[in-house]
Amino acid sequence: MNTLKFFQNTSRFLANYTSPVIVGVAAITFIWPQLFSWVKGDVQTLVLGIIMLTMGMTLTTDDFKILAKRPWDIFIGSLAQYTLMPLIALSMVKFMNLPPGIAAGLLLVGCCPGGVSSNIITFLSRGDVAFSVGMTTASTLLAPVMTPLLMLYLAGDKIEINAIGMFKSILIVTILPVALGAIGNFFWGKKTAYQEFCKTMPGVSVIAFACIVGGVITFNGKHFFDSGLLIFVAIFLHNAIGYITGYGVGIIARMSKAQKRTISIEVGMQNAGLATNLATHHFAASPEAALASAVSCVWHSISGTLLAGIFRLIDRRKEQQK
């Protein structure tokens, strides 16, 4: 087995077992926090940039054409993304009377674009992958404007929000790497060597994702035992309600079964890695914000995998009844 094939197989394994890998890294970091003491500041930004670069490397011109070919679907999906999750987060902040740090983290997760792993979960759920890629692309492109504006509107009266700084951060860690990856795919996407190299990227993304989670736990994990249960309950409910309401939007819009599953996943799964980076840089005085975002990183990965399993179980039972 040559070296490239080894890395491709490793990448496939990591992509298939993202949830246990992330949970395992989180557990190990609680025991040996010094393992990820290097993931901070500019290094954390670079790691997140690598994740977004891997996303960009998967985008083709056909993926961008989806935005033009299916504007109504993308519009409904993006509208649901940037209204449901922020409003659900705000409602929970008020209903649960969350402390400022946890509230900032939950709102930040709610105001971020769709998660980079949602496309994989959509595929596993037998959803509409093209629709998923289109939604993720659209919400990511809108993020530099929408995320700071939503945070300013929803939390600006209680938490100091540096909207301009947040705008710059999102440009640096999302748009630029995604653009570089997409440009690379445009020029070299048809070359066999490049295609083979891209097969290693899912594993790179999982490793980078694990590093971000590990870094946050290294510096903020001690706060988990102070408010860990409250954080998890808030994240769990936010995520679950997002899946349910997202599916509801699909029903109202009379989408197909595959599209309903896709919009459910896209709305419920947020780019918690981006939220973690923003929380670390812009809410450093409230470590619970970064911790809440990191818990979201772990939980969204687990819940997405579980949801895909539920959808596939439903399909198997229907097939058996025929």
Task: Describe the structure in your own words.
By secondary structure, this protein is mainly α. Helices cover 83% and strands 0% of the residues. It is globular, with a radius of gyration of 19 Å. The termini are far apart. The longest helix is centred in the last third of the chain and has 35 residues, at 287-321.
Q: What's the SSE pattern?
A: HHHHHHHHHHHHHHH
What about the largest sheet? none
Distance between the termini: 44 Å
Supply Rg: 19 Å
Mean pLDDT: 85
Q: Extract low-pLDDT stretches.
A: none
Oligomeric state of shown chains: single chain
Question: Structural class, from helix and strand content?
Answer: mainly alpha
DSSP helix count?
A: 15
Note the beta-strand portion. under 5%
Tell me the overall shape.
Answer: globular
Helix content: over 70%
Number of strands: 0
List keywords for this structure.
single chain; 322 residues; mainly alpha; 15 helices; globular
Summarize the structure.
83% of the residues lie in helices and 0% in strands. With 322 residues, it is mostly helical.
Topology:
Blueprint lengths: L2 H14 L1 H14 L9 H18 L2 H9 L1 H25 L4 H12 L6 H7 L4 H27 L7 H26 L3 H7 L2 H20 L3 H29 L4 H12 L3 H11 L4 H35 L1
Helix pairs in contact: 1-11, 2-11, 2-15, 3-9, 3-11, 3-14, 4-8, 5-6, 5-8, 5-12, 5-13, 6-8, 6-14, 6-15, 7-8, 7-13, 7-15, 8-9, 8-13, 11-14, 11-15, 12-13, 12-15, 14-15
